[in-house]
Amino acid sequence: MRTTTIGCGYLGTTHAACMAELGYDVLGLEVDPAKLELLRQGIAPVYEPGLSEMLARHVESGRLRFTDSYEEAGQFGEIHFLCLGTPQARDGLGADTSQVEYAVTHLAPHLTGSAILVGKSTVPVGTAERMADILDFLTPEGVESDLAWNPEFLREAHAVDDTLRPDRIVFGVRSETTEKRLREFFAPVIDHGMPVVVTDYATAELVKVTANSFLATKISFINAVAEVCEAAGADVVALADAIGYDDRIGRKMLGSGVGFGGGCLPKDLRAFQHRAGELGVDHLMTLLGQVDAINQHQRDRALQIAKAMIGGRLLGARIAVWGAAFKPGTDDVRDSPALTIAGQLHLRGAKVTIHDPKAGATAVEMFPTMGYADDPVEACRDADLVLHMTEWPVFREVDIDAVSAVVARKQLLDGRNILDLNAWRAAGWTARGLGRH
Ligand SMILES: NC(=O)C1=CN([C@@H]2O[C@H](COP(=O)(O)OP(=O)(O)OC[C@H]3O[C@@H](n4cnc5c(N)ncnc54)[C@H](O)[C@@H]3O)[C@@H](O)[C@H]2O)C=CC1
Ligand SMILES: O=C(O)[C@H]1O[C@H](OP(=O)(O)OP(=O)(O)OC[C@H]2O[C@@H](n3ccc(=O)[nH]c3=O)[C@H](O)[C@@H]2O)[C@H](O)[C@@H](O)[C@@H]1O
């Protein structure tokens, strides 16, 4: 069977390669010429563990191809996945759905046979209904079309595995025929006992933003508690372990530190906040606003602590920053706490040197004027302070003596509350976390 993936960024590239892995003939559509060129050569435009090998293999075999033509995509297959970006709107908190709307508008006139458009992008509730109206209006006579919303829950750094083995699938549909066809399409993924939730458009759209907002709330909650721990002399890591043993709470997403970033959690939280406001649900709007504010505050807090550690004067101070990606396992620096904090220090006159195992190139694109080093120890040469901002394993495994030998002052701030502070202290360092002993 043939299928298309419209929009080949972090989500779409993984989706396209994984659908080829499941045995489908896949055509990916991407409008960015630089990305398209890479994709056509079988090179992933983003770093994601396991993705580049899979992509190269399927491009080589011809099972996976790429185009920038909506006409070709419309005629290629009958199931079309919409993986377009939905960034935060330039003029407010809401989501910009123009890429999705463009795709539906340009794909619909070229559809053939009996086509289904399957939205995977994260959108404000009400978008699918609107897209279905556009689709109905633009579908050529004699062609059958339908729209489904199938939100995506994959995590970057685990994207391939999460796509091939998701923990649930949600289908927002308006017809049983479409549900049946989607179940058939996803049959290789729908494992025995894996929950499949079939629902309406609005619920499917809301499941996605609710899930991300809940995860964000957990993180902001523990970070707010970390500040209490700091004030009271308690340890937030031991606290999170203790509450996490309760199954009803769980330890996941209770990692404290500089907070959440990335291309999704922050913008989805804000878009949901905005939509809740539009729908007149003020309590939710206020709650989500607080979650966002607490998260932003973690970055300021880390900045203030860093400044205090070097005696209050950033101008001319040398600061090593370990990590640029918004989390380990990716080269994605969108709304990254590490890069935001590094950028702020740089703008205030500090000489910042960053090392990130995979996100160096994407970070340079965003902040070309900061310093970059090829390894964690080199980043620390002559540093007055080392900031651990993204918890790549290489930073946990670093040779403390080697770092001690190159720094100007032995000072460490662990912004992810994950390093063994006592080991650093034993080597003569002033080492601190956020809300931690
Ligand atoms: N990145 C992730 O881990 C996840 C993302 N999502 C959602 O999936 C959607 C896509 O996210 P990402 O892949 O991260 O965004 P992205 O920005 O990396 O990818 C979007 C891609 O679409 C392309 N594009 C833009 N306009 C186009 C058009 N008119 N026609 C064809 N292609 C076009 C862009 O050039 C880009 O490559 C968003 O709604 C996001 O919230 C959902 C779950 C996970
Ligand atoms: O919609 C999306 O794009 C995706 O957003 C998140 O996935 P992702 O952004 O890849 O990363 P997470 O692992 O959720 O981490 C998000 C941020 O929270 C931070 N985080 C995570 C966990 C934690 O305990 N503490 C914490 O600060 C991470 O450092 C990172 O900055 C969700 O986990 C996915 O289910 C969802 O599909």
TrEMBL record:
<keyword id="KW-0560">Oxidoreductase</keyword>
<dbReference type="InterPro" id="IPR028357">
    <property type="entry name" value="UDPglc_DH_bac"/>
</dbReference>
<dbReference type="GO" id="GO:0000271">
    <property type="term" value="P:polysaccharide biosynthetic process"/>
</dbReference>
<feature type="binding site">
    <location>
        <begin position="153"/>
        <end position="156"/>
    </location>
    <ligand>
        <name>substrate</name>
    </ligand>
</feature>
<feature type="binding site">
    <location>
        <position position="261"/>
    </location>
    <ligand>
        <name>substrate</name>
    </ligand>
</feature>
<dbReference type="GO" id="GO:0003979">
    <property type="term" value="F:UDP-glucose 6-dehydrogenase activity"/>
</dbReference>
<feature type="binding site">
    <location>
        <position position="267"/>
    </location>
    <ligand>
        <name>NAD(+)</name>
    </ligand>
</feature>
<feature type="binding site">
    <location>
        <position position="86"/>
    </location>
    <ligand>
        <name>NAD(+)</name>
    </ligand>
</feature>
<dbReference type="InterPro" id="IPR014027">
    <property type="entry name" value="UDP-Glc/GDP-Man_DH_C"/>
</dbReference>
<dbReference type="InterPro" id="IPR036291">
    <property type="entry name" value="NAD(P)-bd_dom_sf"/>
</dbReference>
<dbReference type="InterPro" id="IPR014026">
    <property type="entry name" value="UDP-Glc/GDP-Man_DH_dimer"/>
</dbReference>
<dbReference type="InterPro" id="IPR017476">
    <property type="entry name" value="UDP-Glc/GDP-Man"/>
</dbReference>
<feature type="binding site">
    <location>
        <position position="35"/>
    </location>
    <ligand>
        <name>NAD(+)</name>
    </ligand>
</feature>
<feature type="domain" description="UDP-glucose/GDP-mannose dehydrogenase C-terminal">
    <location>
        <begin position="320"/>
        <end position="421"/>
    </location>
</feature>
<dbReference type="InterPro" id="IPR008927">
    <property type="entry name" value="6-PGluconate_DH-like_C_sf"/>
</dbReference>
<comment type="pathway">
    <text>Nucleotide-sugar biosynthesis; UDP-alpha-D-glucuronate biosynthesis; UDP-alpha-D-glucuronate from UDP-alpha-D-glucose: step 1/1.</text>
</comment>
<protein>
    <recommendedName>
        <fullName>UDP-glucose 6-dehydrogenase</fullName>
        <ecNumber>1.1.1.22</ecNumber>
    </recommendedName>
</protein>
<feature type="binding site">
    <location>
        <position position="208"/>
    </location>
    <ligand>
        <name>substrate</name>
    </ligand>
</feature>
<feature type="binding site">
    <location>
        <position position="122"/>
    </location>
    <ligand>
        <name>NAD(+)</name>
    </ligand>
</feature>
<feature type="active site" description="Nucleophile">
    <location>
        <position position="264"/>
    </location>
</feature>
<dbReference type="Pfam" id="PF03721">
    <property type="entry name" value="UDPG_MGDP_dh_N"/>
</dbReference>
<dbReference type="InterPro" id="IPR036220">
    <property type="entry name" value="UDP-Glc/GDP-Man_DH_C_sf"/>
</dbReference>
<dbReference type="Pfam" id="PF00984">
    <property type="entry name" value="UDPG_MGDP_dh"/>
</dbReference>
<dbReference type="InterPro" id="IPR001732">
    <property type="entry name" value="UDP-Glc/GDP-Man_DH_N"/>
</dbReference>
<feature type="binding site">
    <location>
        <position position="156"/>
    </location>
    <ligand>
        <name>NAD(+)</name>
    </ligand>
</feature>
<keyword id="KW-0520">NAD</keyword>
<comment type="similarity">
    <text>Belongs to the UDP-glucose/GDP-mannose dehydrogenase family.</text>
</comment>
<dbReference type="Pfam" id="PF03720">
    <property type="entry name" value="UDPG_MGDP_dh_C"/>
</dbReference>
<feature type="binding site">
    <location>
        <position position="334"/>
    </location>
    <ligand>
        <name>NAD(+)</name>
    </ligand>
</feature>
<dbReference type="GO" id="GO:0051287">
    <property type="term" value="F:NAD binding"/>
</dbReference>
<feature type="binding site">
    <location>
        <position position="327"/>
    </location>
    <ligand>
        <name>substrate</name>
    </ligand>
</feature>
